[in-house]
Amino acid sequence: MARELLPGQSPELLKALHILTRDGALNADSLRKLKQVNHLVRLLAPAIEDVLARFGDPVLVDCGAGKSYLGFVLHELFLRPAGKGSLHAVEARPELVAAAEALAARLGADRMRFERAAIDAAAPPARVHLVTALHACDTATDDALALAVRHGADHVAVVPCCQAEVARQLGEAAAPAPLLAPLFEHPWHRREFGSHLTNVVRALALRASGYAVTVTELAGWEHSLKNELILGRKVRASDRAAEDRLLGLCAAAGIRPKIVRLLFPAGAPAP
Ligand SMILES: C[S@@+](CC[C@H](N)C(=O)[O-])C[C@H]1O[C@@H](n2cnc3c(N)ncnc32)[C@H](O)[C@@H]1O
After folding, report:
1. In the sheet where 211-217 sits, what is the strand order?
2. Residues 64/120, Cβ–Cβ less than 8 Å
3. Three-class SS of residue 173?
4. Where are the chain's structural domains?
5. Is 134 in the pocket of ligand 1 (CB under 6 A)?
6. pTM of the entire structure?
């Protein structure tokens, strides 16, 4: 089992998070879970190391944190050894927040903060440095991206979840561009294309907000359709050409997704 662990990773934490079985054994399920989490952590590592190197007290925000297992792993592997920084977990469900708070107290994870709130009403520190959102449902991913942009995050990483908003808007679009319309005529295609278009729009919105964007597969999560990882690194104030492409695409498809309403309200055409 030791060779599956990342340097500094303790079986005790993984047991507490139910990533390992209670007796510490690795069955097929727990091995898959551990590999998934560690693969994601490896992909996030350069961004976390960057903010730890550049800032005295970097703030990491995990949106739609659930049981906060990602936060606990990042705390153990990065924040505790660095002796600085904090992780602010935002989660809407009170029982999950209470359980994560109790676990943090038991484990002495003193750099973790918990906020019970909807992401769009959350109050993290004014300046944050890295934002994550792993499978935050439907438009909650858009709320997380908007939070990252508004709070000046240097890095953002989202793995979107189910997404219904854009497919619904495609179904109601009054006059989509004739070349695009056949792509979403049938309900099944509308769902698939809507899901793809949602993430295309998110990547463009990040670029328009000044981020260099990488879209990649979260390998090891193939059993789930929700395995697209969007990474953004802030490199400039904004990108007008990307904004024009974003708004042009939305106008052509006849959609007005939440991320556009949040970040580019003046440019978002009514669907
Ligand atoms: C599929 S779970 C993922 C949890 C965790 N990130 C993980 O990967 O294990 C999605 C979580 O996001 C929370 N959530 C969904 N929409 C939210 C919102 N708008 N504000 C805050 N939390 C939200 C849900 O309560 C749920 O705990």
Report:
1. 112-116, 86-91, 59-63, 130-134, 155-159, 228-234, 211-217
2. no
3. coil
4. 35-164+187-244
5. yes
6. 0.94
Alpha carbon distance 183, 2 (integer Å): 48
Q: Whose CA is nearest to atom 14 of ligand 1?
A: 64
In the reported structure, the alpha carbon of residue 65 is separated from the centroid of ligand 1 by a whole-number distance in angstroms of 6
Residue 34's pLDDT band (cuts 50, 70, 90): confident
CA 91–ligand 1 middle distance (angstroms): 6
pLDDT at 220 (0 to 100):
65
Both structure tokens of 268: 């978002």
Residue type, 249: L
Region of 176 please: left (phi>0), alpha (psi -120 to 50) or beta.
Answer: beta
Q: Give the model confidence (pLDDT) of 209-257 as tens digits.
A: 999 999 998 876 655 557 899 999 999 999 999 999 999 999 999 999 9
Distance 186 CA to ligand 1 centre (A): 30
Q: Within 10 Å of residue 142's Cβ, how many Cβ atoms?
A: 28
CA of 175 relative to ligand 1 center, distance in Å: 34
**147 in ligand 1 pocket by Cβ < 6 Å?**
no
Residues 6+ apart with CB under 8 A from 207: 213, 239, 242, 246
Fold of 35-164+187-244: Rossmann fold (3.40.50)
Number of C-beta neighbours around residue 151 at 10 A: 17
Asked if 17 and 202 touch (Cβ cutoff 8 Å), the reply is no
Q: Find out whether the beta carbon of 136 lies less than 6 Å from any atom of ligand 1.
A: yes
